[in-house]
Design a protein that fits this description.
This protein has 370 residues and is an all-alpha fold. The radius of gyration is 26 Å and the shape is elongated.
């Protein structure tokens, strides 16, 4: 029996298909049983919806729509094999329906039949045409398949057909950043900002893209604007970390916003942690890092940064303890393994130094693209 998979993206995809099915229902002359089944499904009465759709399908052997909708209900009921059969029957009866092929790709992926899912996605892409809803659902499916070019094409189509879809700009820019296509990410983010000039996430993505292009001062400006638009957003403020050493004369502006964030989000360890990175005095850094750890004992970046402060102060044992805690919370931290190898070698423990050196080499090799 093939392994079955389920995740948040799969649920989002199913909701898109259900929404499309509901829209398609408007203005269509259908038997009362179909309308009732759709209402039952929307109300969570899935067993009743399934029974109604099965009855209708049995009475109407050439009706593709009832089989398609039955398949969606069966997916929600986790009856994936039956769902696949129902949707395949719908595709045979109505091969030109883009949403049927999208649903088939979804259920085949849930059943871990990747080849069939890819084939269904290609059929859907050929049929999506001018339907922004279809392209949006296809983008989610391609993302789950790990097909970055396919997801790009689908998201670009969504933006072309529905330029007011803010999420499409965000996802496409984020995807380009993940693929290290910084210039493409900048162009998408800036295109989105034309329509959504105050959107903090688009400003953040623009800053990340500019940083990737080496335009660091412009990146800082973008991050500062994002921080002003979303003064209590963790993701927006976390993104500025890599630029702190290059902030130069803007460091005071960054610090001001970080203090504001700390006041707005007193429960978050991020504020004191980032302020520790720009603190000039070692004692201030240690105080701020301890404050971050006090807010969240599982916040491993604070422990890793603490080891540097302890090492500078000549407190080797405490530095080692901070690194060991880092690895307990984040076992695959390359830098912690490397630093521990050095510290254990200084302490004369060659065996532990070798152990962490090998772990660092292993993680480094795994991170290099093949």
């Amino acid at each position: 029996m093939p392994r079955r998979i389920e995740n948040g993206s799969a649920m989002k995809f199913l909701l898109l298909l259900l929404a499309a099915a509901a829209l398609a229902q408007e203005g269509r002359a259908q038997e009362a049983s179909i309308e009732q089944a759709i209402r039952m499904a929307s109300e969570g009465r899935l067993p009743e919806a399934e029974a109604a759709l099965r009855t209708h399908a049995a009475r109407n052997p050439r009706d593709a729509d009832s089989r398609y909708r039955l398949g969606l209900v069966l997916v929600k009921r986790k009856k994936l094999d039956e769902a696949a059969r129902a949707i395949e029957d719908a595709a045979k009866l109505e091969p030109g329906s883009v949403f049927t092929w999208l649903a088939l790709g979804d259920v085949r992926l849930r059943l871990a039949d990747r080849a069939a899912a890819v084939s269904a996605a290609k059929r859907a892409g050929a049929l999506a045409g001018a339907s922004s809803a279809a392209w949006k659902a296809l983008a989610v499916l391609e993302g789950r398949l790990g097909d970055a070019p396919g997801e790009w094409k689908a998201l670009e189509s969504v933006i072309r057909l529905a330029p007011g879809d803010r999420d499409a700009y965000v996802r496409l820019a984020d995807l380009h950043i993940a693929q290290r296509s910084a210039e493409a990410a900048r162009l998408v983010a800036e295109k989105g900002l034309v329509r959504f000039p105050s959107d903090a996430e688009l400003l953040r993505l623009k800053g990340v893209a500019l940083y990737g292009l080496g335009r660091k001062q412009e990146a800082i400006d973008a991050f500062l604007a994002a921080m002003d638009r979303a003064p209590g957003d963790e993701a927006v403020h976390a993104s500025v970390e890599t630029l702190l050493p290059d902030a130069g004369p803007r460091l005071r502006d960054v610090a001001e916003r970080l203090r504001r964030f700390s006041e707005l989000r007193p429960e978050s360890p991020l504020g004191p942690f980032l302020l520790a990175l720009i603190a000039e005095a070692s004692a201030d850094r240690e105080t701020l890092l301890n404050l971050a750890i006090g807010k969240d004992a599982g916040f491993w970046p604070a422990y890793f940064e603490m080891h540097k402060t302890m090492r500078e102060a000549g407190k080797r044992t405490m530095a080692i303890e901070a690194l060991e805690t880092t690895l307990r919370l984040n076992p695959n931290h390359e830098g912690a393994h490397f630093a521990l190898a050095e510290l254990y070698l200084e302490a004369g423990d060659r065996e532990k130094a070798r152990e962490h050196r090998m772990a660092h080499h292993r993680l480094r090799a795994a991170s290099v693209p093949q």
